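hey m, so remember when u said the tokens were messed up on ur end? i reran from scratch. heres the input so u can diff it against urs
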Amino acid sequence: MSNTSQSTTSESANASANASASETEELSAAGSQLSTAPREETGPETVGGGPTLGVIGWIRWFWRQLTSMRVALILLFLLSLGAIPGSLIPQTDVDELKVQTFKQAHETLTPLYEKLQLFDVYTSVWFSAIYILLFVSLIGCIVPRSWQFVGQLRGRPPGAPGRLTRLPAYTTWRTEAEPEQVREAALALLKGRRFRAHTVKDAVAAEKGYLRETGNLLFHLALIVMLVAFGWGKLMKSEGGKLIIEGDGFSNTLTQYDDFKSGSWFSTDELPPFSFKLDTFTGTYEKNGPQRGTPRTFEAAVTYSEGTGPDKKAVIRVNEPLEVGGSKVYLIAHGYAPVVTVKDGRGKVVFHGAVPLLPFDNNITSTGAIKVMDGYRDKNGKKEQLGFQAFFVPTFAGAGKGDMFSQFPALDFPVMALTGYHGDLRVDSGLPQNVYQLDTTKMTQFKVGEGTGVAQRMLPGETMTLPDGAGSITFEKEIKEWASFQVSQQPGNGLALAGAIAAIAGLTGSLFIQRRRVWVRAVRGKDGVTVVEMAGLGRSESAKLPEELADLAVTLNAQAPTAPEPAEAEGAEK
């Protein structure tokens, strides 16, 4: 007797386990393909603690890990971290002068930064490795998911599981309508709500929210587009700087640039033909309050032409570049160029012109060099070169009122201090030389005043006479202004912008659209009354799914109203 009982219990347990497994498989099938995300694999299969896969197996495992979304996100995070030093540390391809200044000020850190390639972050080996791995990871992840999603769009939602009561959103009622009528009404209702729906056996299966996965794929495709745009821009870009004094012009040829950098695929033959002239520069500044000295007007009026086209007028402002010939001309800096006249001992003019000086503070305290390379002869008729170290302030505080630093960026009280030298400027030595600095290794300083050798301060219109009949230098009353422009050609910017917009649109869709499935089963009960069951399943739990299912149930219930309970029906008959 006991053996029979144990056997019956065992059979019941096995039957229950088989039923549970069957229901689990049905639920798994019902929720399958709600996402195209690949299944995560922890690693190669092992038996007895050792790998059973060979080299090919390990390569496949590595490829699956590299093309997983988790690794793609990690690489994207590393790329963002890698861009931080590129923003904080001066970059050689952006401003080489700042890099040299940084190296001189941080002699201890410089060797470490150079080994880590932190002065060339975006072309460094480690940044390029992250960039390429991310590119490969995204492609390897997106391509199979895209094909899988296309297959889902061509397919139909799976049939209803055996027990709809196990789904997170569920409702049921009894109706006197025929099961076929209920299913037809449910099919029409779901299609009217833009569900993809069809009838499978005794139930209607419907699905909605495909734009969520579309947005997800669009977001990752947009990242690939942005990476391509970034790489294309680096390879094909050109960027050059030019300092122009009022009245002077610029033609877009390589020899006209003060400095020029380009991508490895860029050819100087591709420079678009255009030119422009700086007519005037206008700068006004706040005169009072805590923002004293802050620029209020900062613009350059130019006349430009494209190719052999007519002249046109334009105004270039900060963040408002001139677009011409496929290039953008940015206004990036401003300063003053005092006009000076240098004469030799016989009174012959050997130099006359505006000399641009470089500012080094917000009040445009400036420094530079005046170089007389040809035409000068000393009192004995011997050819020699002159050099003057210039220190200029647009607004001088006055003698005896502190050091000679500008108090305001406008030309309220301009003063220039000059220190003169004679000898060899070494401009013919074949070595590169900074036009704003003097090489005084082979020059002798003029003694001024009482032979102290200090610089002489000069007001506009004043002349400094050089000792021993060496001539003179006059600080003319005219002070011109200069503007520094950056001419940039970035072919990948439009593509990058399109990728960014697509990424935002895709991310919005993937965050705010929920992909879900709804099933409506209508079968005749044992008492002959139709039983209607409705259930919903989404990728993640959401309060909107039960609300949507309730709204669908109310609408369907109006076409298949609830039947009275048996007890109520009997009472009505009596």
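this time it looks ok to me. The first strand starts at residue 46 and ends at 47. if urs says something different then somethings off w ur setup not the seq
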